[in-house]
Every structure is written in structure tokens, then in C-alpha cells.
Amino acid sequence: MREVVIVEGVRTAVGRRKGALSGIRADELAAVVLDEVVKRAGVNKGDVEDVILGCVTQIGEQGLNIARASLLIAGFPIHVPGVTIDRQCGSSQQAVHFAAQAIASGDMEIVIAGGVESMTRVPMFSNSLGVEPSSKLTDKYLIVNQGISSELMVKDYGFKREQLDEYSANSHLKALAAIKEGRFEKEIVPVQIQQEDGTTKHFSVDEGPREGSTVEVLSQLKTVFYEDGVITAGNASQISDGASAVLLMSREKADQLGIKPKARIIARSVVGSDPTLMLTGPVEASRRVLEKANLSINDMDTYEINEAFAQVPLAWLEELEANPEKLNPDGGAIALGHPLGATGTKLLVTLMNRLERTNQRYGLLAICEGMGMANATIIERLT
Domain named Thiolase N-terminal: which ranges (predicted)? Predict the structure, then answer.
């Protein structure tokens, strides 16, 4: 199998629901990162052999294969194909896995993987059209939304509301510090937004992190799913808009083109987990990817575990006996937002840039997914 390297990666800043990016169609937003990632890599658009995008709510402006529409908007030649996939919250991470597999097998040399989601313009669950799950499924499993699943998971692990709120407050503190120190500037491509007065605004700073998100403030928020529960809007990921993309190659192709890759993909995993307690998957996915890589959690210099809800990374830390100082040091989705289809490659870009910035070697990314699944990826920074 051939070595797969990441040459470049970019993302938009993440917009709040009904925020800065709410006036931009998702296909046009994805086109921004597709155009930018090839420019930064110094690769001809016509040499890209496939564009694989994650997008969860594939209806309306996000329907009809948004990957193909986006690459054409971005000016790729017509011979470049595109495909859109849905692995729920891990969709763009799975796009990376599919791209890496195509390259490793020798089918392709250059592939873009990424994702997009405008949760403002295309609301979550709108693609279900109000249809309930099949009775043949619900006869076998208790099918609930992720909020209820979170309440069940919290009870199962014995977490307290205070723990979730404390973790969430720290997510905001870390994200605000990262923004203040400019840690995200290198990975963000500014989006040009037309204002009502005809002027153009350059959107390049994540909107989600909030000053004053203390434990005391978060503790005052009402629970959403159970009156006597623990899950609130403050300890769950934010509804967001955004896009992200990475460009992958075989190591041979990068050498041939004289391109210095940023990282290589060491190992990949995807697992199914309990569809009721659907957010526990990152634990097994991480164990499996570490085994595939023949590495331990102690070998990892940093990790990104998506903060769908606060108990997800807390449970992961407990199960993996991992170092909390290495977990999401720049904040996570509770503060920075979670544009569903874009989150996988968004986090991968952040992870890759952190390894470069801190001169570290290994990074692990894992994301929980609806209906009980999870992906995990290990990358190694290349010097």
C-alpha cells in the first residue's frame, strides 16, 4: 500500500446559526475552500482526480450532489468528478478515509476531501421530511435523538451537571485564547460577504466562542431534553455554518511535483456502536486505530475528540486513560461550533497545524456519529 500524505488544508471561520455566513449558499461556501486548497498547494485543478465532500443534510441547496456543484462553481474543469457522502458528524473525516484508500490502493494520485454544512439555510433533520424510523428498526433498538442519548450516556457514566459545565466553560476559554493568539489564522481562508450597503466584509474569525461563559453562567441555563436532566445549550455543540477541505496525494506524486507534504496518514478506523448510546463510538474507534498504528495513547502528542456534547470527550478521557492537557487545547465544538459535514476536516486541519506549530509528531482525531458510529484517524507531522 502506498503512503498517503496531506499536502494542504484550509477551512472557513465557523459562523453561528443566522450569523455571518447565513447569507451564503453551502455550495458557494464549499467552493471557497476548494479553490483555496489547490491554490495553497500549488496544484492544477485539472490534476485533481476526485472531490469527496461530507454533507449531512442533503436536501435543498445541499442536495443534488453538492460536491459536484461546488467544484464547478470553484472553476475546476468538467472532467473532475465529485461525490457527496453522509457519515453523520464524521462525514468529512470519512471523506478523508475514502480519499486515502483510493490513493493507497493506486486508483488515484490526487484527491480533495472536505465537507460543508449550512445549518442556518438547511436546518438539521429537514432531509427526513418528517418520516419516522421504520418499526422494524424500532422493534430492535430504542431510537432516540442525540440529546436523549446524551442524557442516557451521562447517567451511565455517572457524570454530574457541574462536570459538564466546567468542561464547557474551559472549551470557551481555550478557544478565546487560541483566537487571541492567532493560532487559527493560518488555517482559515477569509470569506467575502456582501453587506446590505454594498460594501464587502472579510469574515475570518470564528463566531462561536463567548466571553463570560463561566461555570456560574452555564449553570443557569435550562435543560433541554429532561426537566431533571443535565444537557443544556451550554454543554452541547453549537449549530453552525462552515466548510473545510484537505488535499491528499501519494508520497510519490508529491515528490514528483516537488511538493513538501505537511503530514502523513498513519492509520484509519471506523466502527459501529450502540445506536441508543450512539455517542460512545470514539472510544472503540480510538482503540482500534491505535492498534492498527501499533502505537499507544501515550505516543499521541495531541488529540481532537469532537465535542458533540461535553460528556463525549470526558468519557473518552476516562476510557482511554488519556492526558486531559492534550485534549482539544484550542477549544472544541462547544465553543467553536459544529457545522456537521465540515467538522471532520476542520478538526483535521486544526490538528495538523497544531503539530506543526508545536513541533510535535503524532495526532489523533475521533468523532462520534448519529445512529452509533465513529471514525478515528492518526496522522504524523512530516519535517
Answer: 4-252
Query: Is 368 tagged catalytic?
Result: yes
d(CA 198, CA 74): 23
Asked if 307 and 237 count as a contact pair (C-beta separation under 8 A), the reply is yes
pLDDT under 70: residue ranges of the chain: none
Strands 50-54 and 82-85 turn out to be parallel
Report the chain's terminal Cα–Cα distance, integer Å: 22
Q: Are 262 and 8 contacting, i.e. CB atoms less than 8 angstroms apart?
A: yes
- Per-residue pLDDT of 157-193, as tens digits, reads 999 999 999 999 999 999 999 999 999 999 999 999 9
Query: Across the chain, which distance is largest between two alpha carbons, in Å?
Result: 61
Tell me the pairing of strands 110-118 and 362-369.
Answer: unpaired
**Per-residue DSSP letter, 232:** B
Q: Is 187 helix (H, G, I), strand (E, B) or coil?
A: helix
User: What are the tens digits of pLDDT across the range 325-370?
Assistant: 999 999 999 999 999 999 999 999 999 999 999 999 999 999 999 9
Strand partners, 375: 270, 367
Which of 55, 97, 172, 338 is flagged as catalytic? 338
Can 89 be counted among the known catalytic residues? yes
